[in-house]
């Protein structure tokens, strides 16, 4: 009797938890997922694993699928960490946003020093094909190219642009599509949350790609935001500008940082900012989902990257829900 009772209790609790999770809320609002960035280093922490399991429907590898982790030297592939993330997702029924195939950062030296177009084309082809093929059918979105723009809307200098020209972008999408025709392929960037040349550069490039028949399916707007930023109320407008291309959009790396020390006032404003962003996605039909860039303020990338700022996520350093969590809930209610 006891096992049966335990089973019934667990199913009951499980469904109660699932019914009020962020993922359940966003699905009720007609979206595909509410996701989170994680990796084995954070999934190892029981509190994090349980929040990821209970609240989220999608996971993005925070670092484990980047080039420096997956192919640190040529043709020497390492999937130890990304495999852990993928099998967690499979056993916990989460979809996966693959992140990221082509990026100027976290790129090993052996790639950045290539000068021959023939060699770079072959290296890029092998890298993309190997990753996409390994997880074929398991990764529903791939960030194929990441952060290819400068703030003025021109293409960012990188080994890819220098050696291959703009052509590396359509090439990357075509190779990824050949390896997994069912994966939805994204171009992802930051500072698309306000009007200006970078947003327009993205729209123009995507329009060109679509016109050329390149298999690009979505635009990711990272949304690394700052509490109280005056642009946040217009976030919906920028999503609408992105979907004017005819593609879907996703909020891919949401966090809203603040100056530390944390104050009650800043936490209250953060609640409103999170609510505005999530509500914007809710209201724009072709916004398919939201991913937050981590679970707890304890492991966020923010303090290392933006000295003097922190507390950007939905759970505090003790794994307690912040007001920001309520903000998200209220936007989806
Ligand atoms: C960050 C990770 O969160 C950090 O752990 C790592 O040290 C650097 O990269 N834009 C992106 C993400 O596309 O991959 C970055 O992630 C954050 C900015």
From TrEMBL:
Its EC number is 3.2.1.8. It is an enzyme of class 3 (hydrolase). It comes from the Eukaryota. One of its GO terms (molecular function) is endo-1,4-beta-xylanase activity. SUPFAM superfamilies: (Trans)glycosidases. It catalyses: Endohydrolysis of (1->4)-beta-D-xylosidic linkages in xylans. One of its GO terms (biological process) is polysaccharide catabolic process. Pfam families: Glyco_hydro_10 (PF00331). Belongs to the glycosyl hydrolase 10 (cellulase F) family. This is Beta-xylanase. It comes from Ascodesmis nigricans.
